[in-house]
């Protein structure tokens, strides 16, 4: 899938240059690249091919060096590509040509089979480890076949194999071939001084990745909500030719399939073949700009066409409709930036539209499923319970376990409460998937075969009840994310062209519209205040406990609450693109990624289940055959062991815990971009902090006002602010801001004195405000004045002198002030055992002064971006390290750190998209709060795993010694599952700030 965007002012007359960017594989990197290259004059348009990791830039630059510098500056490993038809013989000198040839001959490709590589988390871990390895030139991933190809110039592939195994990848060498001499292979670009003199030799014109269209189809699978179904789907779709990648969202029952198929029918057939109730929610075939194509399965006659015309023709931005009833397609010509109003209008008609347009974002939260358990299901399950327990009671009363009434009641109970489990067990058997449904099916059938009909009925009924309770428990985690979206109201009070205020659907409000929000109401959309003042509760977005004052020019966010006063604001983000929407989308995407512990649990379960299954078979067969055991007794023990072997509690514990942790973090104004970072947070040993904007406010403020002589501080500030109001210098701005809204004196003959200061006349007297050089020139820099200036400058402050041409009147000092929260945050980090380190480009004296104020002992100043990168590398060598920045600046250092944090990300698209963890508020205390939450999550995960495995071990011993029955085993399994689920859900509970500052 290739996306192209024309930059403002482009003429489309430039030349095209392509770059291979190995570490560009998602929208985060695309957003960062767009923002950076848009700053370069001469860049006209950008075309991104994320599956192939290729960027094409149309530009009018004389050389591509500025593009390479810009990409490298934001951490992108850009490799210039050469056209395969280019004639390099005339442009490359002999030395270059020979080195190109050498690069071609020496490069080979090694293929590895990595059995536990099946998602983006593993890809990211492999890239992080291998791309920094000397000699590795390119990586190609094939998830369905779990194949990794590495282009390299190493003497052997053993070092790559070692690196893969060190990060837990179950890798083995599948083969290695020398790359053909005619095929250039990707390599690191030549040095900067060689690019203009030599062609970019050795750069790649091809990619190891197989050709893919990049089509992505999103499915809603209403009966997919646990890792068992995920494993079954992975196995089945892995055999469908043309399927490249699977991205699961269990909490919202979504599956995104990247494929090279003409249509998604084979995927639908495969899903339905294994009992998955799948429907297409969204397809991503490209559409022209200004045109959207919908597939509407329920549109097949003029009646539906008339309904759609009536609903859509009046919508703002919709210019034309074209209906194709035979194909059930509707083409909408529009001028909208966001198609949410159109999609919503069709959805309100009950027509279930499928948007076939890759350029539009997916809905932030999936449709509402409710609890997924109907009244009919509850009634059937109640009847099944009565029958199963009735059969057990009849057998206990002496009727016999194989008597007709007992068998009849048991069969009825199984039919009412266990058919779905038996169906799933049959599907698992057909697909050779050894999951809990198959184990339970074998146990129930085995119990019936040995005449234990009542126990068979009770077991399958208890298992079905456990499944239903688990589903309800998962709904709580699911709703924790969905509740984020419910914070924003569905309607907004909008000013109409005739001056009236009218309540309209929020999704129909256009950019630039004026919205009024009254006291006590929630704000529907992001915007900027145009009139009024109030206090707004921003806790849903930033986690702030106190309302924030808002006045003209301030930003307000959707989902926040207007406490008092009426505000009128101009809309800056449409419904679907607000900060709240982006938070919900990010949390949803994050929970779809498997955390390291979850990958470990899945791998453990894949080994544990077949081992226990084999053990159960051995227990059933070996004692009767070789030791004269009673078949009935040992077969019963084996069935009990099969029930105990269900890894449900173990497998379900991690996703619930991770989702609960992500949702809990979002409630606190901490946006975590994946379970990987949520778990890694507890491992951090150091955090690198920038000074400006992180520890300090990022803007100068007046810190000292020291009169000399008869003037009072207020009089000195009045004169200084009146003159400085005519200057744009940052020091002047700080002095004027400190003076506030008070009236200024009338200033005549204002003049800026280059490099020294300013002067102006007030009431016939000429006043000067400037640095020590100006004071010396005027002859007013006495020893006392110089001493004060030196003392203030030693404190990393910028000092100026207010004077006449004869005498100094006052010394004023300006500095970037430290945030009130910084000292507390640094102290909290130290209590958690995390070492804070300051990395700043400011001078060392300033760095030392600020560090002393906040309590940091390791402060490093005068650092360029590459110096910060080196500092991060050294810290990372000692243990996991985090880096706090703004998500764009210091990109190389952020990329090199284990976790990149963005401060004050609320309302900032790029920061939310690019950071690993976004702290929505400008409050550094959120950082130790995140680490403490990460430790709590880690503690819960360990406790759940230990409890689940411990329960299994205890009951296996009981089963082997004959002290556990089938129904007791299923009760234990059900109880363990519920315990770990509810233990994970504990993370959703609010805790006091003082509780969150400590470990797990």
From TrEMBL:
Q: Give the EC number(s) listed in the UniProt record.
A: 7.2.2.12
Cellular localisation = Cell membrane; Membrane
Q: Per its UniProt record, what PROSITE patterns does this chain match?
A: ATPASE_E1_E2 (PS00154), HMA_2 (PS50846)
- One Pfam family per UniProt: E1-E2_ATPase
Keyword line? ATP-binding, Cell membrane, Membrane, Metal-binding, Nucleotide-binding, Translocase, Transmembrane, Transmembrane helix
Which leading EC class covers this enzyme? translocase
Q: Enumerate the catalysed reactions.
A: Zn(2+)(in) + ATP + H2O = Zn(2+)(out) + ADP + phosphate + H(+)
> What residue ranges carry the coiled-coil annotation?
none
Membrane topology field: Multi-pass membrane protein
This protein's record includes keyword Translocase: yes
Entry's Gene Ontology cellular component terms = plasma membrane
What would be an example GO MF term here? Answer: ATP hydrolysis activity
- Positions of the HMA domain: 15-79, 108-172, 215-279, 290-354
Q: Which residues cross the membrane?
A: 403-422, 434-450, 456-474, 607-632, 638-665, 940-960, 966-988
For this chain, the family text in UniProt reads: Belongs to the cation transport ATPase (P-type) (TC 3.A.3) family. Type IB subfamily.
Q: Write down what this protein is called.
A: P-type Zn(2+) transporter
Source organism: Aquabacterium commune
């Amino acid at each position: 899938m290739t996306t192209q965007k024309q930059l403002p002012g482009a003429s489309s007359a430039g030349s095209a240059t392509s770059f291979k960017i190995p570490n560009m594989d998602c929208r985060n990197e695309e957003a960062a690249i767009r923002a950076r290259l848009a700053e370069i004059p001469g860049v006209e348009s950008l075309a991104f091919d994320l599956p192939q990791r290729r960027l094409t830039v149309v530009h009018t630059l004389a050389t591509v060096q500025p593009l390479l510098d810009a990409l490298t500056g934001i951490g992108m490993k850009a490799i210039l590509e050469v056209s395969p038809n280019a004639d390099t013989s005339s442009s490359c000198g002999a030395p270059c040509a020979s080195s190109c040839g050498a690069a071609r001959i020496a490069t080979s490709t090694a293929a590895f089979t990595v059995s536990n590589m099946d998602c983006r988390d593993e890809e990211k871990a492999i890239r992080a480890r291998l791309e920094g390895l000397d000699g590795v030139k390119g990586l190609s991933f094939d998830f369905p076949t779990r194949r990794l190809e590495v282009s390299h110039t190493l003497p052997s592939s053993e070092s790559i194999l070692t690196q893969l195994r060190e990060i837990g990848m179950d890798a083995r060498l599948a083969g290695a071939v020398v790359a053909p001499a005619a095929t250039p292979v990707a390599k690191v670009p030549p040095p900067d001084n060689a690019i203009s003199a030599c062609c970019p030799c050795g750069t790649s014109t091809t990619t190891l990745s197989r050709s893919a269209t990049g089509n992505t189809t999103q499915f809603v699978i209403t009966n997919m909500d646990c890792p068992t179904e995920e494993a079954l789907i992975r196995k089945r779709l892995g055999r469908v030719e043309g399927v490249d990648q699977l991205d699961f969202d269990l909490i919202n029952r979504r599956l995104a399939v990247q494929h090279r198929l003409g249509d998604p029918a084979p995927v639908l057939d495969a899903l339905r073949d294994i009992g998955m109730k799948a429907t297409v929610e969204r397809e991503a075939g490209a559409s022209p700009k200004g045109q959207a194509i919908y597939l509407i399965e329920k549109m097949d006659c003029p009646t539906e066409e008339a309904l759609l015309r009536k609903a859509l023709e009046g919508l703002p931005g919709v210019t034309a409709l074209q209906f194709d009833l035979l194909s059930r397609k509707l083409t909408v010509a529009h001028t909208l930036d966001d198609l949410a109003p159109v999609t919503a209008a069709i959805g309100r008609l009950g027509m279930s539209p499928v948007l076939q347009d890759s350029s539009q974002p997916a809905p932030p939260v999936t449709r509402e499923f409710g609890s997924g358990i109907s009244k009919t299901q509850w009634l059937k399950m109640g009847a099944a319970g009565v029958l199963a327990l009735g059969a057990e009671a009849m057998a206990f009363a002496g009727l016999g376990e194989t008597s007709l009434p007992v068998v009849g009641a048991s069969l009825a109970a199984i039919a009412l409460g266990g058919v779905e489990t038996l169906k799933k067990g049959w599907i698992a058997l057909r697909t050779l998937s050894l999951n809990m449904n198959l184990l339970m099916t074998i146990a129930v059938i085995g119990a019936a075969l040995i005449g234990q009909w009542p126990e068979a009925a009770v077991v399958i009924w208890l298992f079905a009840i456990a499944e239903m309770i688990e589903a309800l428990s998962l709904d709580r985690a699911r709703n924790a994310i969905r509740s984020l979206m419910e914070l924003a109201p569905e309607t907004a009070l909008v000013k109409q062209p005739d001056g009236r205020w009218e309540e309209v659907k929020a999704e129909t409000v256009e950019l630039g519209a004026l919205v009024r929000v009254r006291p006590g109401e929630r704000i529907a959309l992001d915007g900027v205040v145009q009139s009024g003042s109030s206090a707004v509760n921003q806790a849903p977005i930033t986690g702030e406990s106190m309302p924030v004052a808002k006045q003209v020019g301030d930003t307000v966010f959707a989902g926040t609450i207007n406490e008092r006063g009426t505000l009128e604001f101009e809309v800056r983000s449409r419904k679907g693109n607000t900060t709240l929407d982006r938070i919900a989308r990010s949390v949803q995407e994050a929970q779809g990624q498997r955390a390291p512990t979850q990958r470990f649990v899945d791998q453990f379960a894949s080994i544990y289940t077949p081992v226990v299954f084999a053990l159960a078979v051995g227990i059933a067969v070996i004692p009767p055959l070789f030791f004269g055991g009673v078949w009935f007794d040992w077969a019963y023990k084996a069935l009990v062991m099969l029930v105990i072997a269900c890894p449900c509690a173990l497998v379900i514990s991690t996703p619930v815990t991770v989702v609960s942790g992500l949702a809990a973090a979002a409630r606190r104004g901490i946006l975590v971009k994946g379970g990987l970072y949520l778990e890694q947070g507890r491992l951090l040993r150091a955090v690198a902090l920038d000074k400006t904007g992180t520890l300090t406010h990022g803007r100068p403020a007046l810190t000292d006002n020291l009169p000399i002589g008869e003037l009072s501080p207020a009089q000195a500030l009045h004169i200084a602010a009146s003159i400085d109001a005519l200057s744009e210098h940052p020091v002047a701005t700080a002095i004027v801001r400190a003076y506030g809204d008070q009236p200024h004196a009338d200033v005549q003959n204002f003049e800026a004195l280059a490099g020294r200061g300013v002067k102006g006349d007030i009431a016939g007297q000429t006043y000067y405000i400037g640095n020590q050089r100006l004071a010396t020139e005027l002859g007013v820099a006495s020893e006392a004045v110089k001493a004060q200036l030196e003392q203030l400058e030693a404190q990393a402050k910028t000092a100026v002198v207010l004077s006449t041409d004869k005498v100094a009147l006052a010394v004023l000092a300006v500095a970037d002030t430290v945030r009130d929260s910084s000292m507390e945050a640094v102290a909290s980090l130290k209590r958690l055992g995390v070492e804070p380190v300051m990395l700043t480009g400011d001078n060392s004296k300033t760095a030392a002064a600020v560090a002393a104020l906040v309590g940091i002992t390791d402060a490093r100043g005068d650092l360029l971006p590459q110096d910060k990168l080196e500092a991060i590398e050294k810290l990372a060598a000692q243990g996991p390290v985090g880096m706090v920045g703004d998500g764009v600046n210091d990109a190389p250092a952020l990329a090199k750190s284990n976790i990149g944090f963005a401060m004050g990300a609320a309302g900032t698209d790029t920061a939310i998209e690019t950071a690993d963890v976004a702290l929505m508020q400008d409050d550094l205390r959120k950082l130790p709060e995140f680490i403490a939450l990460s430790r709590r999550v880690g503690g819960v995960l360990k406790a759940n795993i230990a409890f689940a495995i411990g329960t299994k071990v205890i009951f296996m011993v009981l089963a082997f010694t004959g002290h556990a029955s089938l129904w007791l085993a299923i009760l234990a399994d059900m109880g363990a599952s519920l315990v770990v689920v509810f233990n994970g859900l504990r993370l959703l509970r609010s805790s006091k700030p003082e509780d969150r500052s400590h470990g797990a």
